[in-house]
Each structure stands twice: as C-alpha cells, then as structure tokens.
Amino acid sequence: MKIIADMHCHTTASTHAYSSVMENVYAAKKAELYALAITDHAENMPSAPGTWYFHNLKVIPRNIDGIYVLRGIEANILNSNGDIDLPLDLQVPLDWVVASIHGVAFEGNHDMDDCTQTWLNIAKNPYVNVIGHSGLPDFKYDYEKVIPEFGKNGKLVEINNSSFKIRQSSAENCKQIALACKKYGVNIIVNSDSHFCTQIGHFDNALKMLEEIDFPEELIINADINRFNSYLEKYTPFFKVQ
C-alpha cells in the first residue's frame, strides 16, 4: 500500500520540532508523496508560534517542486465542551485542521465519560478535518459511541505513526480505534506527525498494524489520489488541486 500524502507534520515554528518547511517538502519529494500539510501547534501548546505565523502561511506556494502544500494547524482541544484554540480569524484562511488533546493544554476531566463528550463535541466542529492521535490512554473515550459520529460528520480518524514510537502506550488503543473504524466504515488517515524531516512519508508501524487487522484500503483517504482529492474538494474549499 502506498500512502500518497502526509497531512500532519511540524516545523521549527513548533520549537520542539527541528526542520524547516522546505526540508519537509524536500523530504516529501524524496518519499514520492503527492501532498503535504504543514500543521504546527496552535497557541496553547508551550512555545507554539503566534497567530501571525498562521496568517502568513499564505506566502507558502500551493505547489512546491510538484508537492501540493496545504496550510494547516494542529489545534489543541481545551475542554470537554470541545473548544479548540483556533481563533475565529484563522478558521477561513487555513486549509487543514488537526484537532488533538495534549495534556498541557487540556483543562477538562480525564474520565471516559468526559472524554467521550469531548470528542462528540469535536465531531460537530465544521472546521476540523482530522481527529489527531486520539489513542492516548489518559484520555480514553467510548469508541463505539464516538467513532460513528466522526464518520457521520466527515472527520478523518488519524492513525499516527508516531504513536507507535513516541507514545507507545497508545498502540493498543490505536488498534482498537482502527477496528472500530473498520466496523463502522469510517474513513481514516495515516500520518507521520513528523517533528524532523527524515520522518516525513514514513508510516511503517501504522501500516503494519492496519495490515494485521486486515483494514480495508478503501477507507484510507490518503492511500489513493482520487479518493484524497475528492475529500479535499468536499471539505477544504479554500484549497484547489490544479
């Protein structure tokens, strides 16, 4: 299986990442990807860039050396109401929004009922494209209740390759999430969550798990260019594939 787009990566603007936009783009080119989303952390992550950074992403060309580049953000989920740190004035200029829970930014409760409600509220947010690395054991939710709602609302459930390396305690939950997506026919997206350019386009651990559970390729949005472009046309009106 060939993953054709890496839609979650970080640059030096997120100061715990270590590669530039161009280094990530060149890595995407080397990996023979079709598209790349730049998704640096939103403001409630310590040392995240200011909103001016995201406003000025418009200076980055849409196509660099044959790689389609989407201007995105990884927004922090702030509480059980599903509020995210995506300012109103950024909701339109950005192409791509990953919504994730990070312990340093989340002020809600950690029990399953509250986490379930958190994700149910995120499912209703029209600006969110991707449900980011939601397998964290400290924020476990009711997959049977929430996963179908992600599907109904056009959210892509992320299988994050870094969860099998950096967040290894998430691995079993990631598998259970993937099984729920398979059960309910919910689309997923496989991403690297790269914090250094050599990780761009590398999805080996995520793909190994998906192969083990015989996950249907047709539910992987970024495993096919036509399927990927169809999603962009429907859910990212400000990004037009040329």
Q: CATH architecture, please?
A: Alpha-Beta Barrel
Shape: globular
Alpha plus pi helix count: 7
CATH class: Alpha Beta
Give the tally of structural domains.
1
β-sheet strand percentage = 5-15%
The helix/strand order is EHEHEEEHEHEHEHH
Low-confidence stretches: none
What would CATH call the homologous superfamily?
Metal-dependent hydrolases
Count of distinct strands:
8
Calculate the mean pLDDT score and round it: 95
What is the terminal-to-terminal distance? 25 Å
Under CATH, the topology is which? TIM Barrel
Biggest β-sheet, characterized? 8 strands, mixed
- Radius of gyration equals 16 Å
Structure classification:
alpha/beta
Percent range for helical residues?
A: 25-40%
